[in-house]
Amino acid sequence: MADFLDKLLSLFGRKQRTAGRDPDATVPLPSLPTARPPEPAMATGPRSAVKRLSLGVAQDVGKVRTHNEDVLLVFTGELLGLEAIPNFGLFVVADGMGGHSLGERASGLAARTVGRVVLERVLPSLLADPLADAERPLLREVMEEAMEAANTAVFAGVPESGTTLTCALLLGEQVILSHVGDSRAYIITPEEFEQVTRDHSLVQRLQELGQLSPAEAAVHPQRSVLYRAVGQGEGLEVDIDSRRLAPGATLLLCSDGMWGLVPEKQILETVHAAPHPQIAAEALVAAANAAGGPDNITVVVVQLPI
To answer: How many angstroms separate the CA atoms of 185 and 133, rounded?
Structure first.
């Protein structure tokens, strides 16, 4: 299994430095005082239509950068029949930093490491004989282990760099989110639009301290400065969240090259108006480029079946 996954993953980019202070360097943490595409026609007889995940991914270097430091990694799977398994998906967005080729190396290494660890730990139990007494790992522990392994790999392999890392492991209607940095995950339903990750950025902390308004943070010259990133030290604090998604809910993962340029109202309207997640992902990338595209742009849109 490990050899197979290594070969598969081997088939699978940063934020520029400016003169003087690196705007993307991590800094010490300040202390605190809609419509869906039609389902396939149901076959005659008693069988029900298969309910599958709908997926869209899009990525672009943007209008300013000359190379891509964003990485996305997507695995989905299904097993139908008498002993079916729930819809399975692993979705990863990483945004590297560090200058030259370091950013893309860091983000790529982090994404591949998460993919390898999660698949090695989860797939054997999913594919085991359901009547056997197979070990069923705790998904939160798997995601935390994968994030820690990614941190160790980047710290050892690209010590001059670092990366954001936002991941979602989906099994049926349950999603486990693991997150470090300022890439984001959103959950969207007809009634709700929720940012479920918290930016580990200096301006976010200043907002929490009441020293910046959201409008001021949006144009702050240090808005890309992170106080927590993968690969910055031997220890890593990871945000882990577990949610049960409603039927038809949409999960959106993206780098700051998208959410930093496209207002939340426009993100919501775009996702609701698109007839398929792929069209939504491409439209969001196009919107970020239309707003100037100063950074690499990555979007993953996942819609659960109704």
So the answer is: 35
The answer to whether residue 171 is domain-embedded is yes
In a domain, 155, yes or no: yes
* Domain range enclosing 251: 2-14+54-303
Phi, psi values for residue 18, rounded to 5°? -115, 170
Residue 199: CA count within 13 A, CB half-sphere: 23
pTM metric for this prediction: 0.83
Among 165, 140, 169, 149, which residue's Cα sits nearest to residue 75? 169
Report the domain count for the chain.
1
pLDDT in tens, 144-165: 999 999 999 999 999 999 999 9
Q: How far is CA 198 from the centre of its chain?
A: 13
The order of strands in the sheet holding 297-303 is 54-60, 297-303, 250-254, 184-188, 193-195
| CATH number of 135's domain | 3.60.40.10
With pLDDT > 90 as the criterion, what percentage of the chain qualifies? Answer: 65
